[in-house]
Design goal:
Number of strands: 7
Strand content: 5-15%
Order of helices and strands: EHEHHHHEHEHHHEHHHEEH
Strand order of the largest sheet: 2-3-1-4-5
Distance between the termini: 42 Å
Low-confidence stretches: none
Shape: globular
Radius of gyration: 18 Å
Helix content: 40-55%
CATH architecture: 3-Layer(aba) Sandwich
Number of domains: 1
CATH superfamily: P-loop containing nucleotide triphosphate hydrolases
Bound molecules: zinc ion
Largest sheet: 5 strands, parallel
Length: about 300
């Protein structure tokens, strides 16, 4: 069975860059925010990272999803990956019919992605936003997939600064208005996504859950990639050698994520040691200190 490496945690944590690097491995395929493929498929403003609409993209075009995707199925997917559905998964209260529909759909999608590039591992970075907090749990318990969770954490102040000073990915791309409550949402969103990822990730068992700070990945990519290779069993050296040679990495065919995905190729930039949060308004720094200060320290940030 194809292994799924699920990059969980809050947005703006570096998952797009990590996704791209991993996707350049000879036995790994990165697909980005796979959970949103059915919606993106029919939205003309949303295209694959290669720039083509999904139905015309060389990677995705042969995927035999119902066209247009069945609205009831999309509704079911959204419902089953939400936080409010998590108790039903944990208590085994999901209807067989729904589990089977979910499993059949996910099996088809992951099998397609893996077969397209003959990969042993597919990287899904749907993360743990409001709509996808329970996704990796649903993939494991309902779709019965071989899921490994990488909990990617980034300094909460840096994340908040990235969201509030430069705007969210979706807002930048013109899909939603930046909310006036963006500060509150960012602070509690960061806390919520990380707390739920930690709680649910551990439920998958210690062999299936790994925490990685994005800053540690940038400071020592070899160490981080070796830890990841132990988590889900791939040979990390080919990526490490390419990073050491400062090579370019192709951005591939990703769904959603940071705009760097449209650059065609990227190089891993060296870690910049600057203080985070200094471009935030004092009110936002205060807000974050109240909501997320403790958790930020727990993850080792000052
Ligand atoms: Zn594409």
């Amino acid at each position: 069975m194809t292994k799924i490496l699920y990059i969980a945690g809050y947005g703006r944590s570096g998952s797009t860059v990590l996704n791209i690097i991993l996707g350049n491995h000879s036995s790994i395929t990165s697909v980005g925010e796979l959970s949103f493929l059915p919606e993106d498929w029919t939205n003309h403003h949303r295209v694959c990272s290669c720039g083509a609409p999904y139905h015309a993209c060389e990677f995705w075009k042969d995927l035999d999803l119902d066209q247009p995707p069945n609205p009831q199925l999309i509704q079911l997917l959204r419902k089953m990956e939400k936080l409010s559905f998590v108790p039903r998964i944990l208590l085994g209260l999901v209807k067989d019919k729904d589990s089977q529909a979910y499993r059949a759909y996910q099996e088809k999608l992951f099998a397609y992605a893996a077969s397209r590039a003959e990969s042993a591992v597919v990287v899904d970075s749907s993360k743990s936003a409001r709509d996808t907090v329970g996704r990796f749990l649903a993939l494991r318990r309902l779709a019965r997939q071989d899921v490994y969770v990488l909990h990617l954490v980034r300094n909460g102040l840096a994340t908040m600064e990235s969201l509030l000073v430069t705007g969210s990915n979706w807002a930048i791309e013109g899909h939603v208005q930046t909310s006036k409550w963006a500060g509150l949402r960012a602070a509690f969103g960061w806390v919520g996504a990380n707390v739920w990822t930690a709680l649910l990730g551990r439920m998958l068992g210690p062999r299936r859950y790994l925490v990685l700070r994005y800053e540690d990945f940038l400071a020592d990519p070899s160490k981080a990639l070796r830890a990841l290779s132990r988590l889900c069993g791939f040979e990390a050296e080919e990526l490490i050698e390419r990073i050491n040679r400062d090579e370019w990495f192709s951005t591939g065919h990703l769904i959603g994520g940071n705009r760097v995905r449209f650059q065609g190729k990227i190089r891993l930039e060296k870690h910049s040691q600057r203080r985070y949060g200094d471009r935030l308004k004092p009110w936002h720094r205060f807000l974050f200190a109240i909501a997320g200060g403790g958790l930020n320290r727990y993850y080792g940030y000052e």
